[in-house]
Fold each of these.
Amino acid sequence: MPLAFLSQSVLHALVAALFIEALLRAWQIEDGVWRLRFRLLALAGPALCLPLLFLVAPFRSSPMFVARWALFAGERWNQIHVAGAGLGDVSLLLAGGAGSALFLRDALPPLLDALRGASHVTAAGPWHVTTASLRALVGARAAGLRTRAPEVRVVDAPMPVLLCEGAFNPVLVVSSATVDRLGPEEVDAAITHELAHAKHRDPAWGYMLIAARALLFFNPAAQWIARAMVDDIERRADQAAVNVTGNAEALARAIVLLFDAGHPPPLDGDASFERVFWRIRREGVERRCARLRHTPEASAVNGGAALVAMAALGVLGLVFFVV
C-alpha cells in the first residue's frame, strides 16, 4: 500500500501537470491570477485528491478495476525486470531521488543561512531620507492597486535589497543601495511590483508552497508544479505593476539590474553545477523580461471560473483512472 500510494502520487502529479499545461497553452491563458488557479488544481491532485481517493474509492486497487478500467496502471511496470527489480519500483526510486534533489536544491541554501546565523541587516530608521522619499510613492501606488500601504522598512545593506516579507502583515524591505542602483522609473516599477506581492499576501503563498514541497519531497512532478506556481506569482505581480505604472520596460530593466546585483556569475573555480544553475536562472530572467516587453498586458479570461471547473473535472477524471 505505501508503494502504491507513492507511485500514484508521482503519476497523478505528472498527469495533472501535463493536462493543466496543455490547457493553459490551448486556451492561451496568460493572466497570472488565472494561471495560478489552474496550477493549484495540478498540485491538489497528489496533495489532496489522492488521499481522498484511497479513502472513498479503495476498489481502484482491485485487479478487476486495474484490468478493465484503468487508463494507466503503474504496477504493470513491475512485470518488466531490471537487474532483478521491477521496472516500476526502479522508476519510483529514481523519481524519489529526482524529487528530493529538486527540493533540497531550493530548501538547503536558506536553511544553511539560518543555521550559520546569516548577517542581520539593521533598519535605517524612520528618519532615513530614503524612507521619507519612498512613503509617498508607496502610498500612491498602493492606492492604484486598491490596497493599503504597507510599512516600509529601509535597511543598511551594501547590496540592493527589495522584497516583501511577512505572511500576515506584509512589509516592504528596501535598502538605500536599491534606490541608488535604480533610476526613478525602475524604482517606481519595482516598488509597485512588491506592493502587488503585498496585496495578494504572496509571502503566505510562499510558505504554503514550501510546506507542500516538503510534504511531497519525493515527487519530481509536484516540485515542478510548485516552481511553476512561483513563476506565476511573479507573473501576477509583474502584470499588476505594469497595469498601474504603464511602464513594462522600466520593470524589465529593474528585474535585470537587481538580479545581476544579487546573483553575480560564478567564478571559474566554482563547481560546474553552480554555473549551470546560475545560467538557468539568468535565462529565466531573460525570458521573463522578454515576456514583459512583448506582452505587457494579459488579455482578459472570459468565463474563467467555468474553465477552472472544467479543468478540475478533467483532472479528477484522469487521475481516478490512473492507479
Amino acid sequence: MLDVFCITAALMVGTAGLPHVIVRFFTVPKVRDARQSAGWALLFISLLYLTAPAVGSMARLNLTQTIQMGAVGAPAGNLAYAERPDWFRTWEATGLLEFDDLNGDGRIQYYNDQNSDFVQQASGFGWNGNELRVDADIMVLANPEIARLPQWVIALVAAGGIAAALSTAAGLLLVISAAVSHDLLKGVFAPNISERKELMAGRISAAIAICIAGFLGYYPPAFVAQVVAFAFGLAAASLFPVIFLGIFSKRINKQGAIAGMLTGLAFTYGYIEYFKGLFLPWAGAPWSENIAANWLFGISPEGIGAVGMCLNFVVAVLVSRMTPPPSAEVRDLVETIRYPRATGTASAV
C-alpha cells in the first residue's frame, strides 16, 4: 500500500513539476486564466490516470482470451498457430511479438502466471512456461486490432498517440533550448552574448536533445511505463518542491533551492539506477536483488520520487535558513511572476 501510494504521489506531484506543463501558464494574461487552465488540465489528467489501469487490464484479458480460445485446462483448446489472426501476423513481422512452440503441438500457450498449477502440469508435455512473448509497448496500438474494431478507430488511436508525442516533445524542446541558451549561457556563462548567438545556441541544444531522445527511443532503457514513471518521479523530486516553495515562501533563496534540487535529483536517480541499472548496470545492485525486500521502506524505484521530494523540501528549507535571505529585488520579481501585469497594474482576478 505504501508503494502504491508513493507511485501515485510521484505521478501526481511530478505532473505539477513537468517543465512543458508549467511553461503553458506563461501564455495567459490573468491569474484566473492560469488557474482555470490548470484546473482543466488536472481534470483530463485525472481521467487519464483513472482510465489507464482499467484499459490495461481489459487489454490483457482481451489478449489472453483471444489466444486461449478453448478450455484453459487443456493445451489442445488453445489457438492453433496456423490459424493466428491478421493482427498476430502484423505484429509478429515487427519482432515485437514472438511465438516459440516449446511443446511442438502447433498451438499457442499463453498464461498470466508462469507458476500456476496448469503450467506446472503442462511441463510434463516437455515444455515449461509461456510460448508467446508480447512486448508491452505494442498494446496501445494492437488492442484495437485484437478487439476487431474498425480501421478508423485504429487510425484515430495512432493519430492521437503521434499528436500527444509531438505536443509533449515541442514543449520539452522549448524548455530545453530556453534553459540552455537563455538561463544557462546568457544568464551565467556569457551575459554579453548577442541575441543571434543566443538563438543559435538554443537551436543547437534542441538538436542535441532530439538526437539523444531518438537514441533512447530506439534503444529504450526500460519498458515505456517504467520510463514515464521514472521521469515523473525525477520531476517530483527536483522541480516541484522549488516551484511550491517559490510560491508560498519568501524565505527560500538560491542556495536552498539548488541544494534541495540536487539532493532530490541525486537521491532519486541513484536509487533508480541502483535497482534498475538503466544506464550503469555495472554500478548498481545485481538484478536478482531488485525485489521488494531490498527496497527502502518497501518503496519501488517507480515511487521513490515521493521520498526524494520530501528530502528536497527538508534540505531546501534548512539551507535557506542557514544562508542569507533573498534580496528585495528577487522578492519583487517573485511577486511580479505571481501576478502578471497586462497594463502595469496587477491582475489577480
